[in-house]
What does this fold into?
Amino acid sequence: MEAAPVVTLINKRRSEIVVRWKEYMEERKDSSSIIDGRTIETTNDNFVDLIFDYLADNQSQDRLNNLMGRILALGWPLSYLTNGVHIFRRVVSTLIIESEMEKAVILDYFKAMEDLLDPIFNNLIEDATSTWENTVSIQKRALMELSAPLIPVMEYLAVMPLIGTIDTERAKLIMENLLEGVIAYRTEVVLIDITGVPVVDTMVAHHIIQAAEAVRLVGSECVLVGIRPEIAQTIVNLGIELGEFPTKSTLKKGIEYALELTNRAIVYKDKPSGLRL
Amino acid sequence: MNIAPNRVEIHNEWDIVRARQSGRERAKELGFGHVDQARIATAISELARNIYLYAKHGEIIISVIDGEKRGISIIAEDNGPGIRDLRKAMEDGYTTSGGLGAGLPGVKRLMDDFDIVSEEGQGTKITAKKYLR
Ligand SMILES: Nc1ncnc2c1ncn2[C@@H]1O[C@H](COP(=O)(O)OP(=O)(O)OP(=O)(O)O)[C@@H](O)[C@H]1O
Ligand SMILES: [Mg+2]
It folds into this structure.
C-alpha cells in the first residue's frame, strides 16, 4: 500500500510536530501532576515515537495492537494517553491548514488524518477498558474467596466468620465452602459467626438455614454464633424459626458447646495464678 | 437536621444495601436506639428486596415524621405485578418464590404502623412507620 500524502507530510515534518506536540503537552502538565518532570519528558518522547513508528509502518492491525501493547505498558493514566492523541491530531491539523493548499485537498488530508488517528484512539479506550475489566474481575474473585472462609480450628471443629453484607452470590459461596470444607476437614461441628453481618433479613436467614440443613445432611452440625442482641430481636420480630438449629451468643460459648458435642472440654494444666476459674 | 425525604431507586441488590444504610442513618439522626435502628434497616431490606424480586424496580422513600409524634416513615412503591390476595401475602409462611414468607408480616411486626395498597397489574405501595418513644 502506498503511503497516504498525509503520512508523508507527517513524516517529513516530524521534528516540528514533536516540538509543537511537546509544547502543548507541557501546558497540560498539571492534569497529570503525579508524574515528575523528568519522567514526563522521557514518556512524551516514547509516546510520540510510538505514534511515528506506527505511522511509518503502513498502519496494519498487527502494528496497531503492538502499539497499544507498548503504550499501555507505559502504565500512564488513560487521560494522559487520550490527551496525547488529541494533541497530535491538533498539531497535524494546524500543519495541514498552514500549508495553504486548496480547500478540497485540505479536506482530503483531514479525512486521511482522521482515518489514521481514529483507530489509535478507539483501540486505546477499548484496550484500557478491557484491561480494567480484567483487573476488576480478578479482584472480585479474590474478594469472593475471602468472603466466606471456612477455618479448621482443631480436630472436628471449624469456624466460618462472616463479615459484611450477604448478597445472593455470597450466600451461594457460603453454602459451597461449608459443604466442601466440612467434607475435606472431616468437621463435625461448624460455627457460623455472624458478628460482622450488619443486617439479618429473611433472605440471609433463609440461606443460613438452608446451609445448616445441608451440613446436617452430610452428617455434621452447624451452630450459629455471634448473634448481637439487636439481631436476636429482629429475628424474633420477623418470626423466623431457627428450629433445631442451635445458637450461641458468642464464639467462645459456641466453641465450648462444640467441644461438649464432640466429648471434649477445655482443661487447664495448672490452675493459673490470679485467674479465677 | 435535613428533613427532605430521601429517595432510593431499587434496581439491583446493591440498591437494597444503599436504601437500608440510608434508613439506618436517618433513624440514628432521629435518636432511635440500636435495636430500633436494626428493626428499621431490616424492614427496609425486606421491602426493597420484595421490589427487586417481584417488581424488578421501584423506589424506597425515607422521610421524617415531624408531627405530634416524631418518627420515621418508609414508603416502598413499585409498578410491578401487584399482589392478588393481600390477606394471604400477610400470612406468615406465604411465599411464591420459595422464600420463608416472613417478609411482609415481619415488617408489620418490626414497625408501629403498616399500610399496604396493591392492585393486580398496577403495582404495590407499602407505608410503614416507626415512632420515637
Ligand atoms: N412488591 C411486591 N410486588 C408483587 N408481589 C409481592 C410484592 N411484595 C410481596 N409480594 C408477594 O407477597 C408474597 C409474600 O411476601 P413476603 O415478603 O412476606 O415473603 P417472600 O418474599 O416470599 O419471602 P421472604 O420475604 O421471607 O424471603 C411474595 O411471595 C410475593 O408473592
Ligand atoms: Mg420478601
Remarks:
- Residues 64 and 119 of chain A are 8 Å apart (CA to CA).
- The mean pLDDT of chain A is 86.
- Strands of chain A lie at 151-154, 157-163, 189-196, 221-225, 247-248.
